[in-house]
């Protein structure tokens, strides 16, 4: 894999012994537990140190966890072993990975807002392609108000998510639900304090490609 932009920055952020974003799954992902299938395949996009992918595996899903940081994935491997679950780790750039066609029952993208607009379009197109018809999409990100809090996330306004952006990108999905809230996050040193977040759940329409 050719080293993508930001590779050295993220390798450095993940280099410490601590988990940069904590060891527990994101609260919105936890909230989505009733929507998960009892079995099937899940993709955790740009999953970093694996906290979300490992949790999905703990729910009985066959998980593929992607990230471009080998340092992060080494920690994800250790976290999976600690919980006694198997996770397939793939070193991949979320913008350039060859997302397999209709391969996953669940696709989760949790705080991957290192993507500039052009990269985000490629990432989201890949995620949509990878999801099976009827499959569950989960997206979590910061809104522009997060710039006021400064408790995590990107500093670039164009990288942040809005309701209109998500509705435009995933408006062809069924059962679309979007939640915006200002809440206290304690997800390691990376996400700590009052935060402005947005979460989406939706299902790829059956009969769509």
TrEMBL record:
UniProt KW Methyltransferase keyword: yes
Keywords, sorted A to Z: Methyltransferase, Transferase
Domain of life: Bacteria
InterPro entries: Methyltransf_25, SAM-dependent_MTases_sf
Residue ranges of coiled coil: none
Gene Ontology biological process terms from the UniProt entry: methylation
Domain Methyltransferase: 43-135
Keyword Transferase recorded: yes
A Gene Ontology molecular function term of the record: methyltransferase activity
Protein name in the entry: SAM-dependent methyltransferase
Organism of derivation: Phreatobacter cathodiphilus
Organism lineage string: Bacteria, Pseudomonadati, Pseudomonadota, Alphaproteobacteria, Hyphomicrobiales
């Amino acid at each position: 894999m050719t080293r993508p932009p930001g590779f050295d920055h993220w390798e450095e952020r993940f280099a410490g012994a601590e988990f940069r974003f904590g060891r527990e799954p994101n609260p919105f992902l936890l909230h989505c537990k009733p929507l998960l299938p009892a079995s099937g395949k899940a993709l955790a996009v740009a999953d970093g140190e694996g906290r979300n992918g490992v949790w999905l595996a703990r729910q009985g899903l066959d998980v593929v966890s992607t990230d471009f940081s080998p340092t992060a994935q080494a920690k994800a491997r250790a976290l999976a072993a600690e919980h006694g679950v198997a996770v397939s780790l793939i070193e991949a750039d979320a913008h350039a990975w060859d997302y397999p066609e209709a391969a996953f029952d669940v696709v989760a993208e949790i705080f991957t807002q290192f993507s500039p607009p052009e990269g985000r379009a490629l990432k989201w197109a890949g995620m949509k392609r990878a999801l099976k018809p009827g499959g569950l999409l989960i997206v979590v990100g910061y809104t522009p108000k997060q710039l006021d809090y400064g408790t995590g996330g990107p500093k670039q306004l164009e990288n942040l998510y809005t309701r209109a952006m998500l509705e435009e990108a995933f408006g062809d999905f069924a059962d679309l639900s979007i939640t915006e809230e200002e809440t206290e996050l304690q997800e390691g040193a990376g996400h700590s304090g009052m935060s402005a977040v947005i979460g989406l759940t939706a299902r790829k329409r059956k009969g769509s490609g």
